[in-house]
Amino acid sequence: MDIRTCESTCIGHPDKLCDLIADTILDDLLFEDPSARCAVEVMATKGRIIVAGEITSSARVRVRESVRRALIRAGYAPYGLRVNVHTHSQSPDIAAGVNTSLEARDGEESAYVGLGAGDQGTVYGYATAETPEHLPLPLVVAHDICRRLDKARSEGTIRGIGSDGKAQVSLRYEDGQAVGVEAVVVSIQHTKATNLEELRRTVRTQVIAPALAHHDLHIDEDTLVLVNPAGPFTVGGPAADTGLTGRKLAVDTYGGLAPHGGGAFSGKDATKVDRSGAYMARLIAETIVDANLADEAVVALSYAIGKADPVAVSVDSRGTSIVTDEILAQAVRAVFDLRPEAIIEQLRLRQPLFAEHATYGHFTKSSRWNHFTLNTQGLREAVEARANRNTLTW
To answer: SS3 for 213?
Structure first.
């Protein structure tokens, strides 16, 4: 038996608040200027929000307005907070490499060859057949708990709780299947007048138990359930803990159960492949699993700044594929256009759609880019063309 653990955060968690602010700024720019370049970082601390980074856009930049709207959305009063803005335009050297790819400079003439990657590095996508969302079950449950906590606060069904909180779920596994709940930990901000023991009972019965039941799980005699194990949690948000963009990468992606390239998503426009490339890698991994070519898939795409085509593509099926991982990687290259401009066009990443994904993970079932029709047939045909048909079961 092994135990797998993932966590999620509520919308008002200081780090997630910074992600929400960064993506709200990006969305507001894209609403007026779909070609805007943006790479902003946010820090939130007691009484102050600091925004810094690069913005190049024909739109009027209204960073403070974006910050205030994000604060309200996260359940915070925006007044009394000082907002400091330190932004400048994108480096002309970086812009030149992004605007005209290495391939275009070498004279290549083909579709989607114009844009070069906005950075170098490797991005990863992951999918598993374990859940309908193609995400690890502990992560799906943790997101569900935090979503329910935020809904209970906003709708008033649990009185006295704040917008800062997080959940951690540990599941027991045997032979790759979840067989029980080892532990659930929830910490949620609350008012000083709240009775802590009553809050613990309410969260357990109205949030934790329904979230587990929704995924055919339940609390048994061996399950450890902890609600606010440190005691009172009356001071929350940036007033209690400084937040930064990009500090919840496992929450944004796969709960730490699959690789991550290390680049944050929020606040970056889609020319940055640590965002757009990671989204495409996730789409490819989902296609592999949805096509029944493997039960798990880790897709790695490596880019060089200023170059359109990736320098390396690999697939790791963790031993679950019906063909070799090399054949899967070859088929992926044949079926998917992995150049930044093609990814942006296919996933429609010039639209202002990012802030809605800043909380509860970027790859949950509700994500817009999870509603595209997966090219499972095309991928299966490409795999078949590259493998010995006699060894496959279709």
So the answer is: helix
Residue 388 CB neighbour total at 10 angstroms:
9
Instruction: Report which secondary-structure segment, H or E, holds 143.
Output: helix 137-155
Spatial separation of the C-alpha atoms in residues 387 and 383, rounded to whole Å: 6
Closest residue by Cα to residue 279 from 253, 310, 258: 253
Report yes or no: 56 and 87 within 8 Å, Cβ to Cβ: no
3-state secondary structure of 82: strand
N residues, the chain: 394
What Cα–Cα distance (Å) separates residue 162 from each residue in 9, 66, 236, 289, 294?
A: 13, 22, 8, 38, 42
- Please give the Cα distance from 56 to 386 (Å, whole number): 44
Residue 383: Cβ within 10 Å count: 25
Nearest to 102 by CA among 307, 320, 240, 379: 307
Task: Confirm whether pTM is higher than 0.90.
Answer: yes
Please give the helix or strand (H or E) that residue 135 lies within, else none.
none
DSSP result, 18-44 = HHHHHHHHHHHHHHH-TT-EEEEEEEE
Task: Using pLDDT thresholds of 50, 70 and 90, give the confidence band for residue 119.
Answer: confident
Is the Cα dihedral 218, 221, 226, 227 positive or negative?
A: positive
- Contact residues for 269 (Cβ-Cβ < 8 A; gap 6+): 26, 29, 30, 36, 37, 38, 39, 275
Nearest to 181 by CA among 140, 132, 128, 138: 138
Q: pLDDT tens digits, residue range 12-31?
A: 999 999 999 999 999 999 99
187 CB-contact burial (10 Å; exposed 0-12 / middle 13-18 / buried 19+): buried
Amino acid symbol at 208: I
Q: Which residues contact 382 (CB under 8 A, 6 or more apart)?
A: 330, 331, 334, 335
Longest dimension (CA), the chain: 70
